[in-house]
Amino acid sequence: MKFKNRIALPTVLSFVVLLIFIAFSALGAGSDSATGLGAAPALPPPSNGAISPQNQADALHFVIAADREIYCREYIARQNGEPPSPNASAGAKPGESWPVPCRMIRRAAESIQSNGAEFSYSLRSLRPIDPRNEPQTELERRGLDFIAIHPTENYYGQEMLGGRRYFTAVYPDLPMVATCIECHNRRSASTPQRYQVGDVMGGIVVRVPLEF
Question: Which candidate, 19, 39, 131, 205, has a CA 20 to 30 Å from the CA of 4?
């Protein structure tokens, strides 16, 4: 009986040592596979893919500003009697009048809202031709004051509207060409302000909801 116990104890100890050796070997192999020559770098931890409200507002503004610039140029070309680009004139009818650019951006914004978009945008000015384009909130007014002094910067803030929090961005709206300035100065004859090249005539306000 004593002889059997002497054999069993070394056998158990050997088995434990073997398990420890296998465990360390596995760890070492895993380490070598990650750091060995030519191995792929370790991937960063997974992300939920969320973007910030500012990035979202900036991306929306890129699209809005690009559409506005193209429409302004086509509108001016049509007013000057120049043939619009083929893509722009494909759906136009002879004698059809185009809305002025500020009215066009309002129509587009209203159309998007009527289709249930969560974000919104609008054209605002401290000295608008159309009174509907006056600032509607204190943040809009502060933003317009800021971009008038800093024409290469944007203004960001948060506000509560209708019981809902929004991230609001105000972007400088610079005239596309000199014709834009001449048109505004001519149409706003009762306003003492006279715009010049490089002046900020207004701002594009983009709102992204922070609560859904």
Answer: 19
